Amino acid sequence: MAVQRTKGVDSARRALQILLQFNQNKPELTVDEILETHDISLPSAYRYLSLLREMYLIEERGKGSYVLSPEILQLAQAAERTLDYRVEAQPVLDQLRDATGETALYLRQLNDAAVCLAISEPDRTISISFQPGHVMPLHAGAAAKTLLAGFAKARRAQYLDRVEPPLSAEARERLSADLDRLRETGFAVSEGEVDEGVWACAAPVRVRSHLVGAISVVAPAYRVDDDKREAIGAAVRAAAVELETVLAKAR
Q1: Which intervals hold domain IclR-ED (predicted)?
Q2: Any idea what the CATH number is for the domain that residue 111 is in?
Q3: Consecutive H or E run containing 67
Q4: CB neighbours (10 Å) of residue 177?
């Protein structure tokens, strides 16, 4: 992901990387699992774990096994309060899901990344990378590119300079042309850019000309023919306008 590394904070970065290794699917970690993921020695692993324990961020459940502490709940609650327009977006996403029969998402930009804030899934869900709280690069996928297209050209160039692995000159030129078209049309389409076999479309959400996010629908490519893609595209555009209306009234 295109994030500039801060110099002189390697130890702090490593401790935070260990903390971020905990997730919904992996709520408990062992020292062996930490060593497998991070290129560090056993004494270093225990040193980082001791720091996280000192800050009351993790607890030792058993010998060599660690879990997040209740202190993390305060961070989660603070983060939830900053999820811009998540509450307002949810009913719009639910209506969009019902209208299309597919998964609807609301995303916004977070520094050099796209973060999913809200999702509405039908009964026949699909596996996608974008899930609430997950951050993804801005240069792949309909919704993410919608956000990147909102960057001024100088800022966009700076972002693309930092992308890892670097884009080839041809890929960068193709992406830049795609972003220019997207900025003009206000509508993006992608297929297989984030998840293989997944088609997506997206439209920007603006409040007083300020880009605040993007609404998107994702679906298995095999399930949406040309007619359905056109219908979904129209529904996504309408949902974006509806959310803009809701947010304008709320401000």
Answers
A1: 71-249
A2: 3.30.450.40
A3: strand 65-68
A4: 10
- Asked if 21 and 130 count as a contact pair (C-beta separation under 8 A), the reply is no
Question: How confident is the model over 31-79, as pLDDT tens digits?
Answer: 999 999 998 999 999 999 999 999 999 999 888 899 999 888 778 766 6
Show the tokens assigned to 244. 């803009």
Q: How far apart, in whole angstroms, are the C-alpha atoms of residue 15 and residue 49? A: 7
3-class SS at 50? helix
Residue among 2, 14, 24, 41 nearest 151 (CA): 2
Both tokens of residue 247?
Answer: 């947010």
Last residue of a domain, one of 35, 51, 76: 76
- Looking at the structure, tell me whether residues 101 and 45 fall in a common domain: no
Distance, CA of 122 to chain centre: 20
